[in-house]
Amino acid sequence: MSLTEILKSGLMNGYASTVVSTKEVLVCLGITSILALYIFFVYRFITRKEFYNKNFNIAVAALAVVTASVILTLQTNVAISLGTVGALSIVRFRTAIKDPMDLVFLFWAVADGIICGAGYAEIAILTSLALTVGILILNAVPIAKAPMILVINASDYNSEAKIIDVVKKYSKYNKVKSRNLRPGSLDMIIEVRVKEESELVQSIMNINTVTAATLMSHDGEVTF
Length: 224
Prior knowledge:
This protein is α+β, with helices and mostly antiparallel strands. It has eight helices and four strands. It has two domains: 138 residues, no CATH class; 69 residues, Alpha-Beta Plaits (2-Layer Sandwich), CATH 3.30.70.
């Protein structure tokens, strides 16, 4: 055998295809689809968004199956693998991920697709169960209640002392965030932690010089 034939044979063998049976493909995609549905329902259960984005959830589930299909394809031929890497290197995703949990689920779907495509479905299943337990436990960790915002309008700027006395009666934690004095009027914003919300507002309104009192809450989270 000549040198040219030896090199040609070596190169052809190096880029030879690995046969993946139809049964293996169906099993891989079937397990990945089950895990994708599992991720879909976990995301739907855990997400705290007021406006649930169903399209994003479907995209996350589909991403796992697509990733598994790509990994299966890459196993069949080295040349296809190199071409795919080159093609993906020019792809740019410009959609901003605003919620960190969305990013976690995206990586989760991609990881399950890669692991199932590589033939390690057991690892993908155990990883999904471990992530679910971890997320649920961390999600159940109690956090302090976010303070409320008390907005007060008074017709006399000398009313601040009376207002503060009433606020201290109902709230151990209170902090004046803003005070705006104008001729004949006082506007205050106070941060409070209070359980008797209605009683606090009514007591504030019982002050003769107070013309309006508004107690507002927000969805912010604190860890102290």
